[in-house]
Design brief:
Oligomer: single chain
Helix content: over 70%
Distance between the termini: 31 Å
Largest sheet: none
Structural class: mainly alpha
Low-confidence stretches: none
Number of strands: 0
Shape: globular
Bound molecules: aspartic acid
Number of helices: 22
Length: 425
Amino acid sequence: MKLKKIALHWKILLGMLLGVIIGLVAIQFSGGQTFVTNWIKPLGQIFISLLKLIAVPLVIVSLSKGITDFKDLSDLSKIGGRTIGFYLFTTVLAVVLGLFLVNTFSPGSNVNPEALINLSEGFTASMSDKIAAADVGTKGPLSFFVELVPQNMFNAFTNNASMLQVIFVTIFFSVCMLLIPSKQTKPVKKFVDAVNSIMLKMVDVIMLTAPYAVAALIATLIAETTNAELFIALLKYATLLLFGMLLLIGVYVLLIMLYAKKSPKYFLKGILPAQLTALTTSSSMATLPVTMKCVEENLGVEQEISSFVCPVGATINMDATSLMQAIAAVFVCQVLGHDLTLTDQLTIVLTATLASIGAAATPSAGIIMLVIVLESVGFPSDKLAIALAMIMSVDRPLDMARTVVNISGDSCVSVLVAKSLKKLK
Ligand code: ASP
């Protein structure tokens, strides 16, 4: 079989295998880790940058194309309403599932806190910046909307973290385009459509390098990996979190089967390239171009839906991250002996949901959210650094898995919204 004929996800999987081999070989030699850091890691970093550099322009042109293709503006509000509805539903479900699991299995009750604290000591020092990053100050109830509107749209366009502002400006611009006679806007429409095709091609070209980049990312991960002993100490927490994530994937498959009347294979095979990219980049935002490509080409969702639902989802819908908040927060309270009342648990549902909307779609964003959640239930601030260090010390592989589930949730909701508006091919 020629290499060209092999499906992308197989090539990426081969790349991962190659990465594992390179990583394992490298750690056998004394200078192996430095070699990987100097010569292999940059390949992975460049791949992530390539994906990120395309995210904002891709969202602008594809969303703008989607909206200006509409015949009727009422479609837009339907898409918006349904998207937010489905996203809230899956996020709250994830937090409640997390609370149910962690209370049922109590992974933190038989753990020796002293041993854990000793093991995670090395991480405590780097926690202060995470705690500082979570310091959101006091925000009013409408601050979300205030922040949605940028003071300068070009500033918003230059920052990947301002994706919601980018979406706002693009919708505003495109709706105004629809409000004037099409004759006047024709050159802009043609330009947007053409740039859209170019962007999609850029994603294709970037993905040609994915198998090699993935090999580099995995090799780096193995060469720079942390303490295995700690992972074993926190195995119960990690296993429970992974089990919860598996259940979430099950929920998505079920929703796809029941609501969209499609098979699990259609969904899981269709988004596999995006899942593998998420696994290796640990960033929903970096994965966004691939998610959009898979949702459109493999799941048959029309571009006007995917161009809105996917970027909004990458920013506000992080089901696995919300699940982790519930499990991690209760887990550290169990280990460190901080009792939680029912009201505290309900507070976790609310804060974790809101925090996941506000969190950035980047590696270890979940840890920063955890500070907000723990503070909301009155967790003693002198123990905060230890609690975070514990969770952080095993977070790398869990962050990878979370990102996979997060983008799967976005893809699932894209299908559901498309189905509800008869925009599923
Ligand atoms: N890395 C995750 C994402 O980008 C966020 C997190 O859970 O830390 O989806």
